[in-house]
Amino acid sequence: MALIVQKYGGTSVGDPVRIRNVAKRVVATLEAGNQVVVCVSAMRGETNGLVELAQQLGGEQPDAREFDVLLSTGEQKTIALLSMAIGQLGFEARSFTGGQMGMHTDSDFGRARISDIDCSTLRETLDDGVIAVIAGFQGVDGAGNITTLGRGGSDTSAVAVACALGADVCEIYTDVDGVYTADPRVVPNARKLHSVSYEEMLEMASLGAKVLQIRSVKFATQYGVPIHVRSSFNDAEGTWVMSEEDVMERLVVSGVTHKLNEAKIRVKGVQDHPGIAGKLFAPLSQAGILIDMIVQNLSSDGTTDMTFTVSRAEYNKALEIANAAASEIGASEVEGDQSIAKISIVGLGMQDHAGVATRMFTTLASEGINIQLISTSEIKISVVIEEKYAELALRSLHAEFIEDGAAEPVADVP
Amino acid sequence: MALIVQKYGGTSVGDPVRIRNVAKRVVATLEAGNQVVVCVSAMRGETNGLVELAQQLGGEQPDAREFDVLLSTGEQKTIALLSMAIGQLGFEARSFTGGQMGMHTDSDFGRARISDIDCSTLRETLDDGVIAVIAGFQGVDGAGNITTLGRGGSDTSAVAVACALGADVCEIYTDVDGVYTADPRVVPNARKLHSVSYEEMLEMASLGAKVLQIRSVKFATQYGVPIHVRSSFNDAEGTWVMSEEDVMERLVVSGVTHKLNEAKIRVKGVQDHPGIAGKLFAPLSQAGILIDMIVQNLSSDGTTDMTFTVSRAEYNKALEIANAAASEIGASEVEGDQSIAKISIVGLGMQDHAGVATRMFTTLASEGINIQLISTSEIKISVVIEEKYAELALRSLHAEFIEDGAAEPVADVP
User: Fold this and answer.
1) Of B57, B69, B144, which has the smallest distance from its Cβ to A20's Cβ?
2) Would you say the C-alpha torsion B185, B186, B190, B192 has a positive or negative sign?
3) What fold is seen in the domain A3-175?
4) Which residue from A61, A278, B281, B370 has the highest number of Cβ atoms inside 10 Å of its Cβ?
5) Interface predicted TM-score of the whole assembly (ipTM), two decimals
6) Would the CB atoms of A80 and B70 count as touching at under 8 Å?
7) How far is A238 from chain B (nearest CA, A)?
8) Which residues of B are less than 8 Å from A67 in CB distance?
9) What is the mean pLDDT of residues B303-323?
10) Residue A149: pLDDT above 90?
């Protein structure tokens, strides 16, 4: 008997008919001899409707505590409806809000972090042969206040519960059927991966692949619970996210990702002595601006250029702060550019293969694409290029590293 | 400093604009130097929407526990929105679900009864100068399951909390501006009562006046908390429901009520010996049929006729059961009639005034209205008449007992 945690997103439970379909799938999993915990999101559109209601109050930013009380009703509706639907199929299900299931968090409303999960109620429920239906995205703090985990929190809830229960697998049902080597809307030749390591998935999630929330992957990595990302609309096997040693199909490059809506800021003519970088970046981080890549180059005249990227939404604020900081540290000029894109290749195989970077740069050069910034990690190479070349870059890198001949598996390291 | 519990119904919090208006009223009550607890219903239409969603699942009767999980989201939305709106006015409010506020009930899902209220959290909140916004209609059972109190439960929540906190008053805001001497849609001369005793209100509530839920009046009676029924759309004083000794304006008859959708069943030729009535009514009550009036008359031939009334919705079921029971007890015939109405006059003043019944019967007779059944209590006389005369009866009794000269106050009993 396996213990399976299943998570269904908002589209999968978008209306009563779909909820009934989910109920059938859950029951089939139970009947196959498993214990089942089901974690659900709010019905598609529900959360936006609640946000709109709050906006219609017309005042300033609503109170964070109360906003969580409001949003958490979305998932509560779904757990009730799904439990009813399972009951109507003749099986017993019991619903649990975040508080009822023992999901304890800190009090950072709107983006709470899980502190611990008391699984005793869920275990009792499962031991009774009952299906446990839990609300994703929500918990309670130490004082019993309702909290929410922030965007993508339902993935995190599901994986965290799977880890706490020591589940055999956490199945993430979504409206795509797995993790692809690139965005299929941009790269028609993109193909579904059978499996991918936690580390690769983390890089892909943070780089713009929207399949799986990055926090949930971190949990799974820590506890070693395999995640199976698959479609709720068919029975096809999806993509397994698992430990490196369990990944069968090991490619040099597992995925090519792109991230638009980036912006670049360059601070020129900075005196090159210790402490300068801190003076530039401290005010930015104090303002809560997330800085992605940072690159520093020494100029011939002994000064240095600092370039960094931020999300386009924070560009104006970041530029203003950078200008103020620049005049303080005696920089000569600040330049900004909002028409950039970040392209990355990700793969565990890179660790063992020299020359991947060279192949990447050559491929881009042969398409006439200029590289503005480069940043690398053990299993990833990212470059910033002009935005208009993003799709071309993606397709040519996918062809180079992943399509046909390019995709030969890496031999296992002896 | 007074402690005031306010309750706003679904129409009063029907949309964000109205919620803002409620927030202003709540804040004004606080600024007048009071501590305030606000109890709210689901937004108008919300509960029906949730019921429809459950129906769209298309299966059999949904699980009662899960139905309560679903319905309770309605009030949870309102408490969040109202707390936000109060916050946006610059005042601090904190929302509480039934579980969070310590509303403990039994486990009879869908119609749970309050077992006790742990007021410690509410008291702390009030002592901090914070407005407490609580969800009506809902609680938790001993195992932490969400429960609902059934129809009209929000009134009950508000009054029960007012009693538990020892509040100075429980204000029930609704879409009418008080309790009337009769339904103004039927009796144009009906007028608003300044005050009415708990006992009279109980009789009026159970007889069809829809202003205040009967269970809430029972709570208030027990703990002596005054209820002020008033409109959320203006500042006019409404009607006070309070102890008999506090009621200033003591009339012979405080109200004339009517109840349609009644039906009558007559079992004829019953042998008049002990135990017969039990044999007739036991199967009816086992079937969950609520019997209202029961009248028994002795015939000249030594047999007896039993007549009773039920709601029209249960008429067919009741008739079937009565027929079966009749043949068992050797009754000669069973007759039914669905076109009846019950008309009642209610008033504490009746206790001291002989002749009220006579005046009632004479008034009806002078309009040519035949009385089919009579039932009396200390402060109420009810008659069953042909349905088509209901409005005429109501208007003539109202004219006789309440309008102009008729309404002279009763002298205080020495």
Assistant:
1) B57
2) negative
3) Carbamate kinase (3.40.1160)
4) B281
5) 0.81
6) yes
7) 28
8) 80, 84
9) 92
10) yes
